[in-house]
User: Fold this.
Amino acid sequence: MRLDFAALVDDSGALKPADPMAWRVGISRLSGKPVHVTIQTRRRPRSRAENNYYFGVVLTMIGLETGHTPEEVHDSAPVVSLRRVLDSRLGWIVRSTTTFSTVEMEDYLTEVRAWAASFLGLIIPLPNESIEVSL
Assistant:
């Protein structure tokens, strides 16, 4: 069983659950059971705007250049390799972009834009940047 709760650590180091009732109910289900506790700082997940830009602009432009759908580009070896991270236990693993924070997503988008420029000669505009297209 996995429980996730939002909380704040106050100046004394005490953990203050955002929803104390849900905390008590959830913890009571684990009474007498061994548990593993992980605490991490809360981070903003990637935004809907970042996701729309990633699929609607970045992957679409790469796909038009290479003859693939945005989904195929997302699953391609070069783009996937940019999502790999070193895990101390498992070696290299590939992270899903759905797990990226907004900062991690922007770092990833910067890497994908650089890859596209270097290997495809494709300049992908930044979010909210307009480009001229000649047909």
Remarks:
- Residues 48-120 form one domain.
- The longest strand covers residues 84-87.
